[in-house]
Amino acid sequence: MIRMSEWQVGVAFVRGLNMFKVRRVKAEKIFKALKRAENKSVRFIGMYKTDDIIFVKRRKVPYAAASSIIERELSKLFKERIYVTSRSLRSIRGVIGRAQEAKTRKLQAN
Q1: What is the pLDDT of residue 5?
Q2: Are 103 and 110 in contact (CB under 8 A)?
């Protein structure tokens, strides 16, 4: 059981999957590979489409640790280098908030 006080949520963005009929794969296949690669510090909890992976990591573990696991497993799956970047849920919420503020300002200016 995961006690969320010990964990942080992150999202990994995978570059170039299922775009223009390149590197086509079902999300279930990716998720199964990632679940096998879980460890005591990083767990995979969901996906959005095939290129956004939701994970939790222990507080002391860098987000890049999850990215490294994902890159390794997907590179094995596709037999080529796959690139991943991860962000905290806090960062993503901040970006969304700024985008909404900018949209509101732009609409008010028109």
Answers
A1: 82
A2: no
In this structure, what token pair is assigned to residue 20? 């223009």
In whole angstroms, what is the distance from residue 40 CA to residue 8 CA? 13
Cα angle value 77/37/58 (rounded, 5°): 135
Looking at residue 56, its pLDDT comes to 96
Domains of the chain: 4-109 (3.30.70.1280)
Arithmetic mean of pLDDT, 54-80: 93
Of residues 42, 54, 35, the one with CA closest to residue 2: 42
Structure-token match 């999957």, residue found: 17
Tokens representing residue 57 in the block: 């990591």
pLDDT of residue 109: 76
Neighbouring residues of 71: CB distance < 8 A, sequence distance ≥ 6: 81, 82, 83, 84
